[in-house]
Amino acid sequence: MSALPLLIEFSDKHIKVRVDGAELALLGPKGALTPCLVSRIKEEKAALLVSLEKIREKAGDDWEEVSDSPDQLKVFADMLAIEDMRRRGIAPDHYTSITRCRHCGPVPIWEGCSSRVLGCPWCLNRHKGLPIPRVNSNG
Question: First and final CA of the chain: distance in angstroms?
């Protein structure tokens, strides 16, 4: 998933992305595609194409609109990064509270979530045998 920071940088620099098979087309404001950035894109092209394909799958029929909007592309890249962290059992930074899940026990969760839940985002990890972050709920 090393290409996700690159997609976020595209958003920050207002660079639009087009994919045609194994080819990338990038369009941005003058000076946005610096030689350093072009070099990184070439180095990470395969990972970038994989990430863009994952975003295309998630976006479905809205892919054209998403790929044409650097800000929307960033939202999808952030979502994939959070999904990847959760799959690896790492609580995203915005999981600042603790809830007690009926199945997983005490787990990190986003602020505003109930203190007790019947199911949580970590239940999918438990079901798939993936790691679940453990927290100390005493305190």
Answer: 35
Domain span holding position 118 = 90-139
What is the domain count for the chain? 2
Chain segment 111-132, per-residue pLDDT in tens = 999 999 999 999 999 999 999 9
Whether residue 34 contacts residue 10, with contact meaning beta carbons closer than 8 Å, is answered with no
Same domain assignment for residues 56 and 109? no
Indicate whether 79 and 116 sit together in one domain: no
The predicted model scores a pTM of: 0.74
pLDDT tens digits for 83-101? 999 999 999 999 999 999 9
In angstroms, the CA 11 to CA 73 distance is 7
24-27 CB contacts, 8 Å cutoff, 24+ apart = 24/48, 24/49
Do residues 62 and 95 both lie within one domain? Answer: no
**CA distance readout (Å), 124 to 33, 120, 134:** 39, 8, 15
